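notes to self, project folder thing:

trying the whole complex as one job this time. last attempt i did each chain seperately and stitching them together was a nightmare. two parts in total, labels are on each line so i dont mix them up again. if this works i'll redo the older ones the same way
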Amino acid sequence: MPIDILMPALSPTMEKGNLAKWLVKEGDQISAGDVIAEIETDKATMEVEAVDEGTLGKILVPEGTADVAVNEVIAKLLAEGEDESALQGDGGGSKPAEGDVKTPKAEAEPKKAAQAEAASAEEGKSTAKAGEKAGSPQREGLHSGNGKSAGGGAPREATAKAGPVAKDGSGQRVFASPLARRIAKEKGVDLSGVEGSGPHGRILKRDVEAAKPGAAKPVEAAAGQKAAAAPAAGPMPAAPSMSDDQIKAMFPKGSFEEKPHDGMRRTIARRLTAVTQEVPVFYLTVDCRLDALLKLRKDLNDSAPVGEGDKPAYKLSVNDFMIKAMALALMAKPMANASWTGGARLMHKGADVGVAVAVPDGLFTPIIRDAQTKTLSVISNEMRDLAKRARDKKLKPEEYQGGVTAISNLGMYGIKHFTAIINPPHASILAIGASEQRPVVKDGAVAVETTMTATLACDHRVMDGALGAELLGAFKDYVEKPMSMLV
Amino acid sequence: MADTSYDVIVIGAGPGGYVTAIRAAQLGLKTAVVENKHLGGICLNWGCIPTKALLRSSEVYHYFKHAEKYGLKADNVSFDTSAIVKRSRGVSGQLSQGVGFLLKKNKVDVIWGKATLKKGGKVSVEAAENAPKGALGGGEYQAKHTIVATGARPRALPGLEPDGKDIWTYFEAMVPEKMPKSMLVMGSGAIGIEFASFYQTMGVDVTVVEILPQILPVEDEEIASVARKQLEKQGLKIMTGAKVAKLDRKGGSVTATIEDDEGKAQTLEVEKVISAVGVVGNIEGLGLEDLGVKTERGIISVDGYGRTNVEGVYAIGDVAGPPMLAHKAEHEGVVCVETIAGQHTHPLDKLKIPGCTYCHPQVASVGLTEKKAKEAGREIKVGRFPFIGNGKAIALGEPDGLVKTIFDAKTGELLGAHMVGAEVTELIQGFVVAMNCETTEEELMHAVFPHPTLSEMMHESVLNAYGRAIHI
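result (full assembly):
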């Protein structure tokens, strides 16, 4: 029996991912541990290693396919002694017509495949393989054991219309009652944007009726986007009350290019929109005197021992101090070191501090775990590694998921003051501005001090104003008396 | 002294109360139920269940009497009223014991007595007689959540009050010593019609008087009219748009003055009268006034989760308002305790509660009647399928009846289903499930119904609503 290669879950919460690239081709010999494909989740690209050995018999999900469900069969591996004929009648719904299977070339002539498809459809058999060979990039054929996609060159579209199972634009099955589906269709509501209140999140009539027209998205527009979009296209809510087409109509044709959303853009849009709508946030701003910290930083960096490659063993940034200060502040105010859930606040034992890292056309927030226990040099080196891998999109999900707070530093752009959006499960985020020399009044006289403005956004569900102020105060104390971070 | 404080105390062990208590216990809540008469309440002891036992006897009797219709011979068919009643009481007794067993199995304490709610979650119980083995006695108990599930009792019309001798409520009608010669049934709701059907089948000359223009007033007009025709064919006399103005008792008979809607009066002499003019909630003597629990027209005011205006006090079932049906009470109780336990719940959708009447022919329905659907401004499609077009119905010798379905013309939502005929009370759940799954006509059309069954008529009725029925 050929071995199924399944879409792996790269993190416990992953439900689907994009099959970015196949690194092996059909017929290749594979050993356990070989890297065979690259999978892209909403934020990271990960390599998939083979678990078994054998010959890659058949790739079922072509590269560039978006939103492949975890545990879907993506390829078939032939064990020793098996040849391609073993793929016949094997699961996955691929039973091609006779005469086709003996030459399992990657590219069969479309005409021949179409004939084969017609023939097998006549016999009431699945057309999955034939459909794929006809050059169709869609993977709907995998599901077409019911033969419903017969007779068309685009099985996905055919099945989506004829079949009882609706899917959203990204191919994810939407669970909705038949009545909800029908009302949604009439109202022009895109079900993928509707939250279900029924059993197991099933979308019911009441959910569709409650769906705000503004949040809803006409089906036609979604379909248009789907057709036009690259692999990673899934519908995103457009501007309130406006369809994609309405927005496009406001700009002269040819005056813009469409850049389809990638997974990261969609994640940023979805999560931060949800936070803005759902989380009550208040902001606290404080000025921190930085001269002592800058001096300490210089002293420490000047005295760094030589490490690998004749480079200093560490080179602390101001931001490294901010991470450490925030971690220690959370330890000092443990009530603020919490995450919100519907039933409880999770009071964390360690301070996991996220750091916003800008990457080309996107953003990551890798986490420094238990930052309160780590020395500045450990934090600094860890941060450097995380930031580099973030830019290469090589972070593992567990490296950017979780955390209780985050630091966003736009000081290097000369930003004096800004507010940042909390990224749950974080309960706060600290927005750090530029450090600059400012005149300050000290002992009744004007003096010049290096000052930095920090603004803490707090989830009011988790902490109230006074606690937020205490947290920010503790942070300021550590920053202004930086020696206290060293002990 | 045992620990007398509970998470949940349910007042009343009727179908709403005991189910609520068991569900509460399942959810890990320390639970007690207070009862002073019967585990299982009216439903199990004086309502739903024992009447079904009586009606089964009358049904079998009816078949015996019509044996020749099936090619059988049965001569000298007769009955023993006391044996019929004994069987009915036996069924109730068995099930009531079963409730006791279920409560025990789920570690729900039974407190025997009459409960009064006091401030601060206190429940004071005054001991009552005939406590079952293992029940706790009177005393002061404490509950975080008190759920009132005290049910309802027969309504008495002024001047026409039941006396328990000649003018019966369902209590007396359930245990006749002998069959009366003639009977007047006041009210043609489910209770009135079921007793009328039972006694009529047993040979009693029965007249039903209904103040509204149709019998079974909550049912679809067309269905009620089919039922009426069948009942009248069997010999039942029915007067609608009429009311009993006066009942004069004299030496073993009652003379009823019946007025029609134009005020014309006539008299009717009968041996017994059954008053079946509805039920009223048992809200008295519970201490609700002292606690400030809001009531309205004999009903405790609650939200969709059984919560009253007083924190920690809840009400479910008949006492919390119509429809006064056991299955509605059970479901409300479950929603109530699941909400207490912090589960994600939804209020009961009262439009999806089925109703069944076990006369011959049976009547069953769920959702909006045709009239109500039109009144609600819905554009509708109506499907009908008669029993005469169904093979199984013919084979059963039950060719009379109708299955009617009502769809929203725009969305295909199943708004209502109404049936009259043999065994329809066992069929209606199919449409209940369909409504709860929010099917449209399409899924119902796609569903394969087994042949030969009465259920095929449900399919055909749906098809008919869209002009596609095969067998008519």
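what i see at first glance: The longest strand of chain A covers residues 428-442.
need to look closer tmrw
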